[in-house]
Specification:
Elements (H helix, E strand, L loop, with lengths): L27 H13 L6 H14 L3 E5 L2 H11 L7 E5 L8 H5 L3 E5 L10 H7 L4 E7 L8 H11 L3 E4 L7 E2 L2 E2 L6 E5 L12 E5 L2 H11 L4 H4 L3 H4 L15 H31 L6 E2 L17 E4 L10 H10 L5 E2 L23 H4 L13 H7 L2 E3 L8 H16 L26
Helix pairs in contact: 1-10, 2-10, 3-7, 10-14, 11-14
The structure holds pyridoxal-5'-phosphate (PLP).
Pyridoxal-5'-phosphate (PLP) binds next to helix 3.
Length: 441
C-alpha cells in the first residue's frame, strides 16, 4: 500500500493537467468577435446586446433576456423588477455570494435569511414557507455551486402565496432540474457572466423573464436607452429615456460580442463538463465520508461545474478523520481539496452592524418590522453544512485519465485515514469561510 504524499510517499496525481483547468475556453472565434467589435466602434451601442439577448432568450427558453454589465446589476434589476421597495422582505439563503442579498438593502428592503437543505445546499422550501409574511415580496433561489434548488417546491409556495421567485443562476448556467433548464422556472432569473463563470464573458450579467412588466421595470431601472423603444407601458414611456433607478446597467459591446461566441460554444462545453461531473462522482461513490453534491432528481444535472463542492461526512470517514486534515492530505497528493465554502451572510457585519446609508440603526434592521438579525444557533443546517463542504477540482473538460488520478488521490487518503496527520485547529471553524473562488489547479 502506497504511503501518503503528506508522509513522504509518491503523489497520486502524476500527470500534467494540460489545459484541464484553463478557463474560459477561448479560440479564434472569440478573438475575431472582439476585433470586429473594436472596428465597428459599437462598444457603447445596444445593438450587440440585442443580438446576444435574442440568442440567450432562445437558449434559456424565456420570452425576454436583458443584458446587464454585471450579474449584480441584473439581480438588482430583478429585485426592483418584482417590486421590492421600502420594508419589503426578501427570503434568501445565507450561503451565497453577497450580490444575491445586498441589493435588497439598497432598495430599503429587509433580508430574511432561510436555512438550506443538506443535500442540495440550496434554500430549504420548508423554511421559506415558515418565513413568509404579508411583507414578503420575493424568494431568492440561488442554485449554489451548480446544484439546482428545489424549484417545484418553491414554485408551489409561490403559487399559493403570490410571492415571486427570483432565480440566481450565476453558478448554474444550463443546469437541468427535472428535465427543465434552471433560469426559466421562476418569475425572473438573473445571472453573472463574469470571466470565472461557467458561461463567461469579460464582465456581464443577464436577466431573463417571461413577464413583460418585470422586463419593462428592469429596463426602467437601469437601461435609459431602451425605455422609449422597448417599454409599452405608458407609465414608463413618460420617462422619455431617464432611468428611474439612477443606474446605467447596459452591457458593453465587447462583453456582448464575446458572450455571443461563448453561448454558441456552451452546449458542447456543458456536455463535456457533465461527463466530467458524472465521472468524478461515480469514481468516488463507494468512498466512505465522501457525499456527492449532485442532484438526485431524474433528468437533473449540475450546471457547468462552477465552484464545485463536495459534502463531507466525518462520522462515516474512517478514523473519524476531520475535514481539514483530509483536505490537507489530498492537496499533498497533487490535486485540489479546500475545506470550506462561502462565508455565511447572516453572520456578516454588513447584515448586522453597518449603517450603510447613514441611518441611526444598522441598515439590516432600519426598515424591518422587528429585529431579525441572527445568531450562531439560527439556521442550523446552514451552520452544519458550512463545516462540511469543500472545494473540489474544477475541470474544464472530461479527461478521463487525469480526473481518475485526482479521484484516486481522494480515495487514497480515505484508505489511509489512520495515517493522516491531524494538526491543532483541524476540528475548528477557523479559516473555513471563503469570500470567493479563484482559479484552481
Ligand atoms: C451567486 C452569485 N450571485 C451573483 C453574483 C454577481 O455577479 P457579478 O460578479 O457578475 O456581479 C455572483 C458572482 O460573482 C455569484 O456567484
Amino acid at each position: 500500500m502506497a504511503t501518503l504524499a503528506i508522509n513522504g510517499g509518491p503523489k497520486a496525481v502524476t500527470r500534467d493537467p494540460g489545459d484541464i483547468f484553463v478557463h474560459p475556453i477561448i479560440d479564434e472565434r472569440d478573438e475575431k468577435a472582439i476585433v470586429e467589435m473594436l472596428h465597428s466602434r459599437q462598444m457603447s451601442s445596444i445593438e450587440p446586446s440585442l443580438a446576444l439577448e435574442e440568442q440567450y432568450a432562445r437558449w434559456q427558453g424565456t420570452r425576454y433576456a436583458l443584458a446587464h454589465n454585471t450579474g449584480t446589476a441584473a439581480l438588482y434589476g430583478a429585485l426592483w423588477g418584482v417590486g421590492v421597495g421600502e420594508g419589503d422582505e426578501v427570503i434568501c439563503p445565507s450561503v451565497t455570494y453577497w450580490a444575491s442579498a445586498m441589493p435588497v438593502l439598497s432598495l430599503r428592503g429587509v433580508v430574511v435569511f432561510a436555512d438550506i437543505e443538506r443535500a442540495t445546499l440550496c434554500i430549504d422550501p420548508e423554511d421559506v414557507r415558515r418565513k413568509i409574511t404579508e411583507r414578503t415580496k420575493a424568494i431568492m433561489a440561488v442554485h449554489i455551486y451548480g446544484h439546482p434548488a428545489d424549484m417545484d417546491a418553491l414554485m408551489e409556495i409561490s403559487e399559493e402565496t403570490g410571492v415571486p421567485v427570483i432565480e440566481d443562476v450565476s453558478h448554474a448556467h444550463g443546469a437541468r432540474y427535472k428535465g427543465r433548464l434552471v433560469g426559466s422556472l421562476g418569475q425572473v432569473s438573473a445571472m453573472s457572466l463574469m470571466t470565472g463563470k461557467a458561461l463567461p464573458t469579460s464582465e456581464g450579467g443577464m436577466l431573463c423573464t417571461d413577464d413583460q412588466e418585470i422586463y419593462e421595470r428592469a429596463i426602467v431601472f437601469g437601461h435609459y436607452g431602451r425605455i422609449a423603444k422597448y417599454c409599452e407601458m405608458e407609465e414608463y414611456r413618460r420617462l422619455q429615456g431617464l432611468a428611474l433607478g439612477g443606474h446605467k446597467f447596459r452591457m458593453n459591446g465587447f462583453s456582448a460580442a464575446m458572450a455571443q461566441v461563448q453561448l454558441e460554444k456552451y452546449p458542447g462545453i456543458l456536455e463535456e463538463k457533465e461527463k466530467a461531473a458524472k465521472l468524478w462522482w461515480g469514481l468516488l461513490e463507494d468512498v466512505p465520508g465522501i457525499v456527492p453534491h449532485y442532484p438526485k432528481w431524474e433528468d437533473s444535472t449540475l450546471g457547468g461545474w462552477y465552484a464545485p463542492h463536495g459534502i463531507y461526512d466525518q462520522d462515516a470517514a474512517p478514523n473519524n478523520l476531520p475535514l481539514k486534515s483530509f483536505a490537507r492530505a489530498v492537496t499533498a497528493e497533487g490535486t485540489v481539496c479546500r475545506a470550506g465554502g462561502y462565508r455565511l451572510l447572516h453572520r456578516h457585519p454588513a447584515f448586522n452592524d453597518y449603517a450603510i446609508y447613514g441611518e441611526d440603526v444598522p441598515t439590516a434592521v432600519r426598515f424591518a418590522q422587528e429585529d431579525m438579525r441572527m445568531g450562531d444557533d439560527d439556521l442550523p443546517q446552514t451552520m452544519e453544512m458550512f463545516r462540511r463542504v469543500y472545494n473540489i477540482p474544477r475541470f474544464s473538460f472530461c479527461d478521463e485519465e487525469y480526473i481518475t488520478q485526482c479521484a484516486n488521490a481522494y480515495r487514497k487518503v480515505m484508505e489511509h485515514a489512520d495515517e493522516v496527520p491531524i494538526e491543532e485547529g483541524d476540528e475548528t471553524d477557523e479559516g473555513l469561510g471563503l469570500a470567493g473562488f479563484t482559479q484552481q489547479r
